[in-house]
């Protein structure tokens, strides 16, 4: 009798696993951005709704992690779903002993938990047990390593870059300056910057408006406007962006083309022009680091996130209210925002200088 129950559980678990995985594979990402308030509401199933409860990239990670868990279960003759907490704990230790980083163990835990949550036939999720939470916490404590954060970019470094690359008319150089200054002033993540379309940018009399359609913390894709002032300095991001648009022959309007795009070099005319496509993270990172090296800055201490951190640190240093900082940087919590701000030595010393000793 117990053997029959076990076989039924494995069969049910496997059926639901196949359903969810097939949905995650075949389900169009466009439905993830679909607004149910539309005039013609699409017909969806419960599996469709479940697959959109997480971002498409997250679902893809969960799927891969769960497939690894399923293979381990087959090799060890245990049930993958519904799973026993003892078997899940053994799997985590197996990952640990194989040299997996904690991030992989954590993804495995989240994936197994999510697939169990997606099954209406499972009452108590084994991943919610205190036993597994303690296993995860123990792995995290053992595998934790000090975080080495990149240094924030300073206005002095930006001035060096603009002095070297921003005074000519080479499209490649001006694109570099425009992206760098805009990232710094708008606290843009790389993904937010390269996702900007021409129609997302609006020039006002004394400032620039950029519409961020989606960001890491904007789970429901409501979007956010980012305002950047015109400063009148050589490092003004608004002026540099106007120069870039002029050299690239981009006309502000309703175009859905990406604002910053890859370049093609025409040897005959000794000039760059834009081509279709989207800039990759590695391309932007390499160009940025090469530019830093060319002005005498040790690029090992900086990354693309240094621009976002630099702008946030500079704003915090001059006393910009936290509420404005969080809104401008699209941060959902104070802890996330504080992780980007590097306090100056002077500010840190103010505490011990003002406690009456």
Walkthrough of the structure:
The chain has 357 residues and is mainly alpha-helical. It folds into two domains: 2-143, DNA polymerase, domain 1 (Orthogonal Bundle), CATH 1.10.150.130; 155-347, hpI Integrase, Chain A, CATH 1.10.443.10. It contains 15 helices and five strands. The strands form two sheets. Strands 1-2-3 form a three-stranded antiparallel beta sheet, covered by helices on one side. A two-stranded antiparallel ribbon has the order 4-5. A hairpin with a 3-residue loop joins β1 and β2 (207-212). α4 (85-97) packs antiparallel against α5 (102-117), α8 (171-186) packs antiparallel against α10 (237-247) and α8 (171-186) packs across α12 (305-317). The longest helix is centred in the first third of the chain and has 25 residues, at 2-26. The radius of gyration is 25 Å and the shape is globular.
Structural class: mainly alpha
Widest sheet: strand order? 1-2-3
SSE string, helix = H, strand = E?
Answer: HHHHHHHHHEEEHEEHHHHH
The helix content, as a percent range, equals: 40-55%
Relevant CATH superfamily of the largest domain: Intergrase catalytic core
The whole-angstrom Rg is: 25 Å
CATH topology of the largest domain: hpI Integrase, Chain A
Q: So how many helices? A: 15
CATH class category of the largest domain = Mainly Alpha
For this entry, what is the oligomeric state of its chains? Answer: single chain
Shape: globular
Q: Please provide the count of β strands.
A: 5
Query: How confident is the prediction overall: mean pLDDT?
Result: 85
CATH-defined architecture of the largest domain: Orthogonal Bundle
Largest sheet: 3 strands, antiparallel
């Amino acid at each position: 009798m117990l053997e029959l129950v076990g076989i039924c559980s494995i069969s049910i678990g496997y059926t639901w696993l196949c359903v969810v995985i097939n949905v995650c594979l075949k389900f169009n990402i466009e439905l993830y951005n679909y607004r149910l308030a539309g005039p013609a509401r699409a017909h969806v199933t419960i599996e469709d709704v479940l697959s959109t409860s997480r971002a498409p990239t997250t679902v893809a990670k969960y799927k891969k992690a769960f497939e690894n868990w399923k293979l381990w279960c087959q090799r060890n003759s245990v049930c993958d779903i519904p799973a026993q907490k003892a078997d899940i704990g053994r799997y985590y230790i197996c990952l640990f002993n194989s040299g997996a980083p904690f991030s992989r163990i954590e993804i495995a835990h989240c994936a197994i938990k999510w697939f169990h949550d997606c099954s209406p036939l499972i009452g108590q999720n084994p991943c919610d047990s205190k036993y597994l939470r303690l296993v995860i916490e123990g792995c995290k404590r053992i595998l934790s390593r000090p975080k080495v954060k990149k240094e924030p970019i300073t206005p002095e470094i930006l001035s060096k870059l603009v002095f070297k690359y921003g005074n000519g008319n080479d499209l490649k150089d001006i694109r570099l300056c425009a992206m760098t200054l805009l990232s710094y002033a708008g606290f843009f993540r790389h993904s937010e910057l390269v996702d900007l379309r021409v129609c997302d940018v609006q020039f006002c009399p004394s400032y620039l408006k950029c519409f961020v359609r989606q960001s890491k913390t904007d789970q429901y894709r409501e979007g956010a406007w980012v305002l950047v002032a015109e400063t009148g300095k050589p490092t003004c991001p608004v002026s540099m962006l106007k120069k870039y648009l002029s050299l690239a022959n981009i006309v502000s309007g309703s175009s859905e083309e990406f604002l910053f795009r890859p370049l093609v070099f025409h040897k005959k005319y000794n000039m760059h022009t834009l081509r279709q496509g989207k800039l990759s993270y590695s391309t932007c990172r390499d160009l940025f680091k090469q530019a830093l090296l060319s002005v005498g800055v040790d690029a090992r201490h900086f990354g693309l996130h240094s621009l976002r951190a630099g702008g946030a640190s500079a704003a915090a240093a001059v006393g910009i209210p936290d509420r404005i900082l969080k809104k401008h940087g699209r941060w959902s919590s104070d802890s996330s925002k504080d992780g980007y701000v590097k306090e100056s030595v002077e500010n840190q010393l103010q505490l011990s200088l003002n406690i009456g000793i």
